[in-house]
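With this grant's support, we have paired protein sequences with backbone structure tokens. One protein thus recorded is set out beneath this paragraph:

_____
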Amino acid sequence: MKSSLLAALTLASCVVPGSVFAEEGATTYRVTFERTWSEDTHPADFPLLAHFSPVIGATHGRDYALFSEGATASAGVERLCEEGKHQPLDAEIRAQIESGRVGALIETMEPIRSVPGSAQTRVSVDAGHPMVSIAAMIAPSPDWCAVAAGVSLMEDGRFVAEKTVELYAWDVGTDAATSYRALDADTKPHVPEMRSRSPYFLRDGASVPVGRVIFVRE
């Protein structure tokens, strides 16, 4: 009896009151990537045939960033945001899956041409890869993408039931052109990625979202 009581007291002393243990295993989210970017929301010089490219992203931990303000765009990010193509970014993400820094590749296959419009997919996250970074090219444009970077789906050690994150236009620093349909003007060397400060995406000095991404736990 004494040994059982001692074991129970020892266990209790190791638990910090109010602490929450991180969930183990994987959980699935329905991901809806919505476009709101339109002539009504962003009227300045709004282009004909405007659309978002198919969506690409990754689940990951804190030691990985698909997009990061101040970082230099990879070859894959450059091609996504200049041409709307997933290659070679998909290969870059798969290489990080092999290294363990990324949990899963996220992709949709069709552009988002209508407003309102959306693309939907499902993704699995786990305690080691509880974050999502996801993007689509804003097309036409020099090197601009609609981005949600480093969205954590785990709060206080628990996976959230639902989360909505605004999508903002990013300039990934690979093309110096400043208008939607400008000719290519490659930036060499590349300048750091940042949320776009183009007047196309500002109102009264503040960034206007181009969409949102909604995560719903299944």
